[in-house]
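Suppose a classmate hands you a notebook page containing two proteins, each written out with its sequence and a corresponding row of structure tokens. How would you begin to make sense of it? This section walks through that situation. The first entry is reproduced here exactly as it would appear on such a page.
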Amino acid sequence: MTPDFIQLHHGDDQALAAEAATGLRAPAAHVSPKFFYDALGSRLFDAITETAEYYPTRTEAAIMATHGAAMGQAARGVTGPEPALVDLGAGNCAKASRLFPLLQPGRYVAVDISVEFLRQSLQCLQREHPQMPMAGVGLDFSAELALPQGLTTGPAVVFYPGSSIGNFNPAEALRLLSQARSVANGGALLIGVDLVKPVDVLEAAYDDALGITAAFNLNLLNHLNRLLGADFQLREWRHLAVFNAAESRIEMHLEARRSLTVRWPGAERRFAAGERIHTENSYKWTPEAFEVLLRRAGFTQTEAWTDARGWFGVWLAWG
């Protein structure tokens, strides 16, 4: 058996350049966090997850290791045997593959913005599980989560680990969760959520002592230089990570160290000293607020597991 590959999202560099330029020219300059992820950016993010300060990856992994059997049993109680496992933002498929013994899925569907990134991982995974049907779907589900008709049949478990739901504002998160409920087709959602915690812990996680997160943020300017033909000079900018308590989110910014002008073909933007480009939000939820969000998305029943400190939660939602 070999994996199927379906590319629904097709990158358009001109459209991406136009989007980036529009954000840079806005009164409060901003760019989407998707511009972090060129080849170097992806490697830098992997390095971030290994830093002492970045707790989400290892805390979620510990929760899954401790409670995975209970999660699998609860999910199968909703879906019945051999559910489809739909993995959002699958990447290298490693997190989802650890669920295979627990969920015993009848089909694995890996969803990421590019099938090409998934291809090698899925082919390796298929060799380890030769009897399991697998598919890779290239889809930008931040715009809309909808799978090709017939890709899954019956109830599914939609898996969204890593606290990536925090990159969506509450209205966007509600839309995505509602769409995930539709994709689950009477099944369940299994999702990792970063929780509100002391500000010093939050800010350190996004501004590590080694400076890897700073390099990750600054590398976005390299990506914009290539995409736009811009002339950002990285030494003229510094990384900032601050917790906005009113919005319950970590914000990442790049701040101009002096007055400067950035130019690209046909346009330019002047920045005053201290002026910022807003590059990412990462919303943090209280358990109570996330429960309300799940209910608003249409889920009627939930079960949640957290670490001993209550820093991170994994929710199973259904109904």
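The notebook's second entry, a different protein, reads as follows.
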Amino acid sequence: MRMVATGLLILMAAVFLVARQYLGLHPAVGYVMAFAEAAMVGALADWFAVTALFRRPLGLPIPHTAIIPTNKDRIAETMAGFLRTNFLTPQVVARRMSGMNIARALGDYLADPAKRGNSGMRAGAAELFAEVLESLDPERLGEQVRAGLKSQADRLEISPLLGQVLGAAIADRKHLPLIDAAIRWAGITLEANEPMVRAMIHERANALLRWTGLDERLANSVLDGLYRLLAEMLVDPDHPVRGKVQEGLEKLAHDLSHDPDMRAKVEGIKHEILNSPAVGTWWQGVWERLRRNLIATARSPDNALAGQLGGALAELGQALRDDARLQVQINRFARRSAVGIANRYGDQLVRLVSETVKRWDATTITQRVEGAVGRDLQFIRINGTLVGGLVGLAIHALDAALG
């Protein structure tokens, strides 16, 4: 559009030169020349006006030019005040959201694969999410998340919770597969470390046993007895040793829930773990892997939405779309949350806008504002060319009529 506007100016200049050359040929040529002359003036005036908004025309230090770069700080403050006054007040937010069924709209979007598959919207949102994750300081953010989790864990007494979970698992007999797995693991471990067990028995046997070779028979007897014990425990649900294990688990579940000493020990262990530097280092590694996976998933949303995530989103969308009571709850929560955010963080949000604009240099703000307005800037020049030509034509016609 910039080329079109400039080309129209060049065309008017050419028409003016040709019409001036043949001015005496016919009276109508005068009208054409007047139109072209005034159109050039209008085109140049509007070119100057449009250019002066963003930069200095021809690089000349003309006063009151490069208006937007020169006044970007004042523009930032004005923009922030406009947003705060007209958009981020609790009354405005509540009024705007009162008639919105956010849950239903979200449900329709998630339940419909065609809408959910909107590649432009999905790619834009995913790229924005990925850029936000990349722009944040991973160590600081990971530490903040860890501090939040630690604060929640400090307030939560986990001993009764563990006791209830263990008691419920025992009541439902869900602990039996774990006991079986532990027995199998013990058998595999014993088999893998059989040479070490034999060496321990040989070392502890006296010289007479080693001289007579009874230490080897003793080692075989010990290992055979252990293998037999593990096999019997595995096949016999009522084996006495399993019963002892059962009693021990039941006592542990009871003590976790009711024994003050046990609860104090568990809480002490919990605090030691939470305050351990090793846990902090481990969590930082977990968070970094999680952050990278989230970035990778966001940058390949097609793969993520094609699997289980896509099915889960579709089911969630159907629930939001069809359940009126759930919609009421979600909409009420969204409205209250938005009003609360506007009330608590409105000033911080507009300050973020103003500070961001202030940090932009002149080139950045010029490119972004000019790009946002886009083609309309060049239509100003085109309209100026045509309107100027028509005004010039009207003045020439009036002059001819009066003359």
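A careful reader of the second entry would note: The CA atoms of residues 200 and 219 lie 9 Å apart.
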